[in-house]
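Sequence decides. Our protein:
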Amino acid sequence: MSSSFGSWPSPFSPTSVAASSPRIDGAAFVGDEIWWGESVPAEGGRVTVRSSSGGEMLPAPWSARSRVHEYGGGAWTAAADGTLYFVDAGDQRVRRLTRDGRALELTPAGPAYGGLRLSSGRLFAVYEDLTTEPHTRGIVEIPLDGSAADDPSELRIVVAGPHFYAHPALSDDGIRMAWVQWHGDRMPWQHASLAISDGTYTSILPTRAALQPEWSGDDELLYADDPSGRWVLHRQALHGISPLRAAEPVAETADGDTGYGLWVLGNRWYRLLDDGRIVAVRTAGRDQVVVVGADGGVRRLDLPADGHVSVDDVSGTRVLLSGNSSTGSPGVWSVDVDTHDIDVVTGGEPADPEWMPPASEIVVDGVRGPVHAFVYAPANPEITPPGDELPPYIVLVHGGPTAHVTGAVSSAIAFYTSRGIGVLDVNYGGSTGYGRAYRERLDGEWGVVDVDDVVAAARGLADRGLADPARIAIRGGSAGGWTVLSALVRGGTFAAGISRYGVADLRMLVEHSHDFEASYIDGLVGPLPDAEALYVERSPLTHADRIDVPVLLMQGGADRVVPASQSESIRDALAARGVDHEYVLYPSEGHGFRSAETIVDALERELAFLGRVFGFTPSS
């Protein structure tokens, strides 16, 4: 059957996409079971913890979610006996939940906790208290008996100060603690130090952008750093808390990063096996999982997990991986690194290549160098594309902007490609996964380089005869929404734009910015007040009169990162000029849409919007 692009019948409904969109939030070996965190879109995005035995270890109404540094992470951990420790999404207190359902508060009201780490029967966490002036942060040890719930003095402060903190790691002898810290005037991927303390003295090691310290015996510390422009693993020999000599790379230098932007606290990019070998992730667009031997030799594992992979836990020769896949759905996998046995714990369903062929990685020439992107061509085995028509495309712009996409299978993308709408997912300059130089391409140039790169990617696709140049839309959320609006202001490439909780005014963003990102814009644009004229000039709101194509704006009413006033300012500017636009407010959503109801409504509205703008009638 032949049918026009955009109107193809599809098995991917908004409801099925919402139901297949749980977020995996870490995994752990717990006794003879495997536990993992998983969002429940049908319950407003509540994060539960499930077990391979079929049980739900964190029943409703509990939800494990941290708000430390606003983006949280590391909101649960578990002991071998099945005791669960979690940060409650409602009040941010840490609780202990036993298998018989008894819950005990472990921390006092007020601060938020995250990055939970259970080591040798001791529980550590990163904390942030925004109820004090000035705001306070640090790392604490939390008593397991609940004594600190009513008496904050029972919390043992490991470190507290003017920095941000992450990745607490206790030495095998239980005496020393290592962690990562950075000052608020820099982002952790720009500069972060590695600290070691014995409880009396603290040593700061010379690092550039340290990540994830782990002890390898009492006198050796592993960590990731990028002094050569790529995050690679380093080995630091110690005497107490002092370095014995300069740190050495663990393995030969690779064209890939073991690590990326430290937005959340729960990520793990490598783990040590009992025999000293290391299982690590290397990212160069897509991820590779490798085993590093004692001699530094590297062996790649052939795995379905190849996007945003986290090495969550190890047991003997088995490793737990969570993440995305270019050949199937997101999931959790248990892998034996010696026998190569792969057990799918949850998710990981192989995609039907007729409906969802793997994304093609492309590189186009940009103004400042190569631009990396992934192409998802329209695919529907029941339809013969019209021979005289090129397909419409959506160009996706990820948020961050210091983040990246990996060409993963996605039912949300198949929702479009199965209907005859192609998708181009762009890792514009500033994205992680391609080294520091690519990441720093955006420094001082946000609103310029990102726009140049998405324009180059879109035009490159059209120049190759893959997309209808008159029917290319652009969609993004948060920082990606900023790039959408900035690209529409520039004009000439995109026939429509979809902005989800996008930034419209830089001064407004800084005014409402939370602590973690308080100086982020200084590096992306420039410091205030000196750069105020540039803030005004770069902001899409300043030049909203240049937008002359239809725009769909969607916004969460409870968004504390990019408040509704940002989208509403653009809405008002478009309305004043009579520009075709739609504005949708989801009152209970925050920064990112999590509930099934919202996901369904947003997809329905986007498809209807594109059909109206591009002249096709979507199938039901």
The mean pLDDT is 94. Residues 268-350 form one domain. The first helix runs from residue 14 to 19.
